[in-house]
Amino acid sequence: MFSGRIPFGEGHHDAYRQLFSRIAGMVGICEDLPEEHNTVTLDPALTDGHGIPAPKIDYTLSENSRRMLDHAVARATEVLTAAGAQDVITEAPIGVGGWHLMGTARMGTDPERSVVNEWGRAHDVRNLFIVDGSIFVTSAGVNPTRTIQALALYIADSMKKRLANLFD
Ligand SMILES: Cc1cc2nc3c(=O)[nH]c(=O)nc-3n(C[C@H](O)[C@H](O)[C@H](O)COP(=O)(O)OP(=O)(O)OC[C@H]3O[C@@H](n4cnc5c(N)ncnc54)[C@H](O)[C@@H]3O)c2cc1C
Question: What's the pTM?
Fold first, then answer.
């Protein structure tokens, strides 16, 4: 429906029957890199019900990411065609679906270029730990949840090891 192959109204049922149960899907996930033109800042005007500023997200697809997507679509089309597909419908990037929002508080040893250190503690606030997808350094090239879980275990272990002087 999103690609316009199944119209609403006249022709809907015919188009639906033509495609129904004859479709295989394939998804390519690309590693979007950290780029200075992509930012999350505080919205100057929009607030939530408590008056807290809403996040303002500025994002445009870079040439590098565009080319990765084109490559993924071309290879996936080859695979599907080799498998006997008669018609290949593509959408890149997907308009409606799961975008992985990573890297807004990235991990690193340099306080000028990262938000948390190598065991998850904020460089600027010694009793603040960030343990989620925001500490990734890129979007990752695969689904992120397992890695987020692994980071949670790793950071909890690191905290346990340092309990005596955790906030020094
Ligand atoms: C449609 C969709 C499909 C996806 N599919 C997959 C998949 O198949 N496999 C995979 O690995 N990943 C998938 N992802 C990505 C994955 O879900 C996320 O990367 C992951 O959940 C991020 O975890 P997180 O803990 O960083 O953030 P979140 O899970 O977003 O957790 C943030 C939490 O903070 C809370 N919060 C926000 N603001 C405040 C505040 N001011 N005070 C208190 N609490 C607050 C929120 O309510 C939320 O509970 C998908 C994402 C989407 C959107």
Answer: 0.84
